[in-house]
Amino acid sequence: MSTQPEPTAQQIDQRVFDLFDEYCHGFIDRREFLRRAAAITVGGVSALAMAQALMPRYVQAQTISFTDERIKANYVTYDSPGGNSGQMRGYLVQPSGSGPFPAVLVIHENRGLNPYIEDVARRAAVEGFLALAPDGLAPAGGYPGNDDDGRTLQRELDQAKLRQDMLNSARFLKAHALSSGKLGAVGFCWGGGIVNFLAVEMGEALQAGVPFYGAAPASDAVSRIRAAMLVQSAEKDPRINAMWPQYEAALRANNVRFERHLYPGTGHGFHNNSTPRYDEAAAKLAWERTVTFFKAHLG
């Protein structure tokens, strides 16, 4: 019996990508996503297979093994006063050597610390950074092993306390014995918005921020940013891109050091290599720019 290959990104109808974006942001659940995708026809054929192909494939997406000799990875717990439980857990990855190392906080999407984000933390460590990927779901028992349940758990948390947990994670990493004291933050989707939040809240304590397709902060808060900012944007991301003109104007008005890159033809989530939303060329270039930016500002 022959099986049909899964659709590639180029073969997936844009309407399915749009539905997937709604699903990823919690506007519809998995069942509704698949139901509405099944109602779409392309060439007389249901787009359900396209929808199913967009579900993450984390095993295939790993690029740096947790046993890689260039790094040492382990899970750590630390205090988080004012957070959802008073304690946090994160994935700490250090480069080989004795340090100290410039530090980078790696912030997950709206579903907790999944394998993709852990892999990004390992990628950062391979480049010479002490990386911490906090699990915002730690107070709820941690990432549950699948994104659907993770998204539900994260939505049910107290959001202000969750942001405090991320702020406490940044402070923990900056003060870590292996940290040089120079701190950067990179985040994706929800995590991109948290990078902007940290830039506002931490002022001079954060040296560099790289939000990937993240929500912009309030314009009247931008004056508090002291970090250099590298804004990574997808071309086909209307909700996030609609925030950019005001954010850009506020950055310029407050003399914040920034640069922005818009990646042609890409959609929200293009850096995540576990789904067909992934754009290999854009993701590679964006990550190279991120590493170069951190090396320039963190030493």
Task: Determine the mean pLDDT.
Answer: 89
CATH hierarchy class name of the largest domain: Alpha Beta
Strand order of the largest sheet: 3-4-6-5-7-8-9-10
Strand coverage percent: 15-25%
Indicate the low-confidence ranges by residue numbers.
Answer: none
Order of helices and strands: HHEEHHEEEHEHHEHEEHHEH
* Gap between N and C termini: 57 Å
- Helix/strand class: alpha/beta
Sheet with most strands: 8 strands, mixed
Overall structural domain count: 2
Shape: globular
| Helix fraction bin | 25-40%
Q: How many β-strands, per DSSP?
A: 10
- Radius of gyration, taken over Cα atoms and rounded to an integer in Å: 19 Å
CATH superfamily of the largest domain: Alpha/Beta hydrolase fold, catalytic domain
Describe the structure.
The structure is a single chain. By secondary structure, this protein is α/β, with parallel strands linked by helices. It folds into two domains: 9-55, no CATH class; 59-298, Rossmann fold. 38% of the residues lie in helices and 23% in strands. The chain has eleven helices and ten strands. The protein has helices spanning 14-24, 30-38, 48-53, 58-61, 115-126, 147-156, 159-174, 190-202, 238-241, 244-253, 280-298; strands at residues 41-42, 45-46, 71-79, 87-95, 101-107, 130-134, 179-188, 208-212, 228-236, 258-267. Strands 3-4-6-5-7-8-9-10 form an eight-stranded mixed beta sheet, sandwiched between helices. A two-stranded antiparallel sheet has the order 1-2. The longest helix has 19 residues, at 280-298. It is globular. The mean pLDDT is 89.
